[in-house]
Amino acid sequence: MTTAIIQSAAISKHFGSATILNGLDWQIMPGQVIGLLGRNGAGKSTLLECLLGLRETDSGAVRIYGEDVSQLSDATRARIGYVPQKSDLFEWMTPRQMLAYFKALYPRWNDAKVDGLLARWGFDKLMQNKAISKLSGGEQQRLSIIRALAHDPELLVLDEPVSALDPVGRREFLRELIDGVIERGTTVVFSTHILSDLERVALDLAFLKDGRIALQGRLDELLEGARRVVGPAALLDKPLVGELRRQRAQDGTVSVLTCGGVGHGLPAGTAGVRVEPLSLEDLFIEVTQ
Amino acid sequence: MTNHAAHLFSIATGSSEPIYRQLVDQVKRLVAAGQMAPGDGMPSVRDVAQALALNPMTVSKAYSLLEMEGVLNRRRGMGMEVAARAAPAQSAQERAELLRPTLERAAMEARQLELDSDTVLSLFIQILKEQA
């Protein structure tokens, strides 16, 4: 039996009176490439920070590689790479200095990879010796990604890694993720709003809503299994097979989201009822609103 | 015999059809249309993954399905090739399956219009005759 790399049990987090995480259980298995989705403010960053022990939880427990996240050993830390949504640290340093500083902290550091990425991602001599605070948002984000990949982590956690990158930069990042990370069997957890990128690389999806993982599954299976069933309330009064949620419009039409319910429990071709497949964007809206 | 390049493929994100499914259907159509001939070499999983910026698992899932369905063969050594059973040898039933996605869409629209099966079928027969 394979054991989970990250195991979170009933973690909760409140900011003042606001509940951000509400008894959340989640597991990340080795080799998974999993996209974390949720609306703005759903708590994706908080969740990722709690999972990595960067933020204390109010209750519950997180274990990474079997260790309590509040007391990770250096050896385990060295297996993890993290790209925060926004990093304000080390702004006075130059990229060169910052990378040298981190190199000293890690037993394993891939100089060839770092040099290759710096060259491919446009960090010439001039830029490598400029203060990080003087770099653009996109350049800072690339640097943060290079730093996270430099020690060939076995677990890579990325929080909106491409939010500041243009489409070319995003594509370059995806290619690096595919070639240098996923091909090595690295476990990847990332949050993003760019669904087209997610579709290209993620094999699993998890939706964060109301402080819990509301829906999780294989991307392919979710797309193939998810259907929107729309029709008059009288025909859709009973719960459907695989029903996730239902909504009633003002005109009395009911719209039901089902997942994996073959046939939906309706007689085939019930007149007046429409069954539609969903794109990832439709699914995002249906699950998270 | 040709060795096909990874740029042969194109995929669309934002579709309700998973990407591996799009790849499978694309290969089937190219084979059925004769653009891919028996013995032709397929681009490697890695090349396709790089060219289209896709997770390699998605590409290998598509290739495995195509192998299971007899469209592709695994070459001794490395890589995949188009199977010897060429397009003309495909049974009518198999070729008809390729029409399924289009017909499913038509069926959905027919239901939206609340048309009964007889009306839809007679229209389809009429269209087939017009095209013949």
Largest sheet of chain B: 2 strands, antiparallel
Broad structural category of chain B = mainly alpha
The value of Rg of chain B in angstroms is 17 Å
Number of beta strands of chain B: 2
- Please tell me how large the radius of gyration of chain A is: 22 Å
Approximate strand percentage of chain A: 25-35%
User: How many E-type strands of chain A?
Assistant: 14
Structural account:
- Chain A has 289 residues and is of the alpha/beta class.
- Chain A contains 10 helices and 14 strands.
- Chain A has 2 domains: 6-210, Rossmann fold (3-Layer(aba) Sandwich), CATH 3.40.50.300; 225-288.
- Chain A has helices at residues 44-51, 74-77, 95-105, 111-120, 125-128, 137-149, 167-181, 195-201, 219-225, 280-288, and strands at 6-15, 18-28, 33-37, 59-64, 67-68, 80-83, 155-159, 187-191, 204-209, 212-218, 226-232, 243-248, 253-259, 274-277.
- In chain A, a hairpin with a 4-residue loop joins strand 12 (243-248) and strand 13 (253-259).
- Chain A is elongated.
- Chain A starts with 5 loop residues before the first strand and ends with a helix.
- Chain B folds into 2 domains: 6-87, Arc Repressor Mutant, subunit A; 99-132.
What's the helix and strand layout?
The complex is a heterodimer of chains A (289) and B (132).
Chain A: E1 6-15, E2 18-28, E3 33-37, H1 44-51, E4 59-64, E5 67-68, H2 74-77, E6 80-83, H3 95-105, H4 111-120, H5 125-128, H6 137-149, E7 155-159, H7 167-181, E8 187-191, H8 195-201, E9 204-209, E10 212-218, H9 219-225, E11 226-232, E12 243-248, E13 253-259, E14 274-277, H10 280-288
Parallel strand pairs in A: 3-8, 3-9, 6-7, 7-8
Antiparallel strand pairs in A: 1-2, 1-4, 4-5, 9-10, 11-13, 11-14, 12-13
Helix pairs in contact in A: 4-6
Chain B: H1 19-32, H2 45-52, H3 56-68, E1 72-74, E2 80-82, H4 92-97, H5 100-112, H6 117-131
Antiparallel strand pairs in B: 1-2
